[in-house]
Amino acid sequence: MKSGVPYFPMLFLNILICFNTLLSLRKISQGEWQVLYCKINSTLSLPKTPPTVSQAVTWIAQLGGFLARRPDGEPGITVIWRGWQRLQSFLDIWLLFNPSTCG
């Protein structure tokens, strides 16, 4: 019998799929995607449409330390979680100083 190591990538993939599904079901708020877009792109001008779920997850992971280089593959749960926490902190500050701009 082989060790459980080959099963770890499948478990990780399932966790990542669950996170993407939860994020897409939850639908990040208008304020969250606006703050995320502004932070990642270092701009205050916003696009008219929100990012795709895949793009939002990548940006959230970048806030958590993911470098998003071509050979890096998909972001992991740890960087996504760290990024999500940072996004919530940025959103709190954004809402504090711009209460009427976020929905």
List keywords for this structure.
Transferase Inhibitor Protein From Tn5, Chain A, domain2; mainly alpha; about 60% helix; single chain; about 100 residues; elongated
CATH topology: Transferase Inhibitor Protein From Tn5, Chain A, domain2
Largest sheet: none
Strand/helix succession: HHHH
CATH class: Mainly Alpha
| Number of self-contained structural domains | 1
Structural class: mainly alpha
Rg from C-alpha positions? 16 Å
- Work out the strand percent: under 5%
- The CATH level-2 architecture is identified as Orthogonal Bundle
Low-confidence spans: none
Helix content: 55-70%
Shape verdict: elongated
Annotation, overall tally of beta strands = 0
Q: What's the overall average pLDDT, rounded?
A: 82
Straight-line distance between termini: 54 Å
Question: Regarding quaternary structure, how should these chains be classified?
Answer: single chain
Helical stretch count?
Answer: 4
Per CATH, the superfamily is Transferase Inhibitor Protein From Tn5, Chain
